[in-house]
Design goal:
The protein is mainly alpha-helical. The protein has one domain (22-113): lambda repressor-like DNA-binding domains (434 Repressor (Amino-terminal Domain)). The chain is 60% helix and 10% strand. The protein has a two-stranded antiparallel sheet with strand order 1-2. A hairpin with a 5-residue loop joins strand 1 (3-8) and strand 2 (14-19). The radius of gyration is 20 Å and the shape is elongated.
Amino acid sequence: MTEILYVTDENDNYTTANSTGWDVKKAALDESMELIYERIEEAKQNVANNIVSPIVYFMEFNKMDLGVLASYVGMWQWRVKRHFKPRVFKTLSEVVLKKYADAFGISVNELKNFDGK
């Protein structure tokens, strides 16, 4: 498989060229995806072991980080991070849970009842 790239020629003019380096890109992407799947599985196990709240799992599953999630739900990062604690998560209001559920594209019920199993 080849890919078109923009390169400069000997006169420093932009032109196109074919790349045959797809195998290297594929290997890098495969490795990145494997790391993502490992993080998702680790988050799932941590939810099952009551180490973190389901928010962490759904954040990883949706390939978000703390900053992205905080901006989606309209809260400070420190507040979102606090909601990662199972004991704090259990006290969240329906309004706050709805913000998270909407960000993850799931129902509040799915968020509240996810146990990592």
